[in-house]
């Protein structure tokens, strides 16, 4: 359906998508945009996935200064998703969203290497970086990552710790040894954030340590640090 525009002083355009599908249980409504969250699945996982789609959508909408909400009358009763974005109405667009939202200026775009053996996680991070205005390059295997790093000489590399064959700690050390990558800004991606975990990543050559799931603001901070 066409966007419905509000008459508030701040122009907001909204669109909604409604279906008559499986619906959303009441206890899931507050969590469905969280990373990796899914409703209980049948044994055949006919409606399976990894719980990334709605997280990607929410991040993309947020980057443009908008919001997305979901409603449902319950399981089997369909769902409605409403997206609200600042309206592009002439000069009002200049004040519709804060300056911090949106892609980086073209001249400040950087090459960023993303390494994770989970293809969906790589896709999510890559899309977030692309929307921020940068050039993501992805790899799902450490050997592939080393070859790609030597080729593109990234300014920033986001490395998952739990990789096959060699872990992210060893990958960081080998990447630092590549000619031209001594100063690459390395960020460890892991599910663990204790002081001992951070100390281990620092000892392996990482400049920063991020605990999954990684948010947009954390990516911006890492990008800013890599540019310095």
Describe the protein.
With 228 residues, this protein is an alpha/beta fold. The chain folds into 2 domains: 4-88, 2-Layer Sandwich (Heat Shock Protein 90); 106-227, 3-Layer(aba) Sandwich (Rossmann fold). Helices cover 29% and strands 21% of the residues. It is built from 6 helices and 9 strands, in the order E-E-H-E-E-E-H-E-H-E-H-E-H-E-H. The chain has helices spanning 53-63, 119-131, 142-152, 168-176, 195-203, 216-227; strands at 4-5, 12-19, 67-71, 79-86, 111-115, 135-139, 156-160, 185-190, 208-211. The protein has a 5-stranded parallel β-sheet with strand order 6-5-7-8-9, with helices on both faces. The protein has a 4-stranded antiparallel β-sheet with strand order 1-2-4-3, covered by helices on one side. Helix 1 runs parallel beside helix 2 and helix 3 (142-152) runs parallel beside helix 4 (168-176). The termini are far apart. Residues 1-9, 41-50 and 91-101 have low confidence and may be disordered.
Topology, please?
Layout: E1 4-5, E2 12-19, H1 53-63, E3 67-71, E4 79-86, E5 111-115, H2 119-131, E6 135-139, H3 142-152, E7 156-160, H4 168-176, E8 185-190, H5 195-203, E9 208-211, H6 216-227
Parallel strand pairs: 5-6, 5-7, 7-8, 8-9
Antiparallel strand pairs: 1-2, 2-4, 3-4
